[in-house]
Amino acid sequence: MKPKPERKYLKRQLWKVKVGEACFEMVQRLCAIFEKHNPTTCSPFGYALVSSIAVTYAKPFTSNRIVGALSPQFAKFPTEQHRLAHGLMLELRNELYAHQDPKHAHVLIDIEPHDEGEQILYKFFHGLEQHHLHQRWIPIVNQNAAEILERLAPERDRLMGLLFGGEQHWPAGNITLNLYDNS
Known about the structure:
This protein has helices at residues 7-37, 44-58, 80-97, 138-164, and strands at residues 105-115, 120-130. By secondary structure, the chain is α+β, with helices and mostly antiparallel strands. The mean pLDDT is 85.
């Protein structure tokens, strides 16, 4: 017989699942807004939506010091296109939207000399060229979020059962999941 997992471990697993559910529900809402308004991804509105989608999608799969990342088992997709969309969200979160990596952004400096008689005045112009997520990925990311949510629900119920007993024993009302004690 397998030993019962430690309560502290179960609480951390449940915390990851609940954070994941909240994140993927938000991703679905953000994708719906994007699809309704269909902005370009380099407009301020489009950039804000796409960066929010990428950061929120990747958050559960990004490790933290206290509980770690959501298991990659929740991100196994049957099609290559869905696997690519998942990887792209993690990459863009890590290398463009939450952090800046030279792979996805290039600083452009333009120097214009102006002859002013006895002096040459140099004017510097700068810009930032960035790769952005193509909007064609938004419906696929939305589908991924829906699939992940479907996988998380039974895991949430399993963990609740281990922590609190069967559904009939689940506590009513608000429960604060305290990760720092063993109660």
